[in-house]
Specification:
The protein is of the alpha/beta class. It has helices at residues 19-32, 38-49, 69-81, 100-105, 141-147, 168-171, and strands at residues 3-8, 56-60, 85-87, 91-93, 118-120, 130-137, 155-161. The strands form 2 sheets. It has a 5-stranded parallel β-sheet with strand order 1-7-6-2-3, with helices on both faces. A two-stranded antiparallel sheet has the order 4-5. It starts with a strand and ends with a helix.
């Protein structure tokens, strides 16, 4: 799947973080916090808005338990900078799934598209480009599972891309 990210998330296991990488990590964790600070979403929203152009649909990606609250807030922050976009909160999960991080620690492979338990609540036709909005991507599998419901035509838009940050040792276990 094609996805674009505002920042690269670097694991602290590979080396000490630069100031920019530390800020990316701080914001990535803050975006998941239910007691979020509005300025964190404004920072992320402004950077993510630079990656897209007008007339589009932003679809918040559900987290592992099915909640879209944090990513809906991120969509609203992006929409402050891209006035021609619409937010289409239509994805959910049938049941909670384990995170890719948990699965990696246990030596378990990624979930398949169907194992993600993603469902689309409405089947409205969308005539504008669709961006799946997520705070962090690790493997890209959640975005793939969401994209399944948009005939694989959506683009993943993420704040931080952690998919290329595993150390060489982690990739070769």
């Amino acid at each position: 799947m094609n996805f674009i990210s505002a920042r690269l998330y670097v694991s602290t296991r590979t080396r000490p973080l630069t100031a920019d990488e530390a800020e990316t990590k701080r914001i990535a964790y803050a975006l998941k916090d239910p007691l979020y600070q509005a300025e964190v979403f404004t920072i992320a929203g402004a950077e993510m808005a630079r990656l897209i152009s007008g007339h589009c649909v932003l679809v918040p990606v559900p987290n592992r338990s099915g909640s879209c609250v944090a990513n809906e807030r991120l969509c609203k922050a992006i929409a402050m900078f891209v006035p021609d976009c619409k937010i289409y909160s239509v994805l959910d999960r049938r049941e909670t799934v384990s995170s890719q991080c948990e699965r990696h620690k246990k030596g378990i492979g990624p979930l398949s598209v169907m194992q993600h338990q993603i469902i689309r609540l409405r089947q409205d036709r969308l005539s504008m480009p669709v961006y799946l909005v997520d705070n962090v991507t690790t493997s890209g599998n959640t975005l793939e599972a969401c994209n399944h419901w948009f005939s694989y035509l959506a683009i993943g838009l993420v704040w931080a891309d952690a998919s290329r940050t595993m150390s060489w040792v982690d990739r070769n276990k």
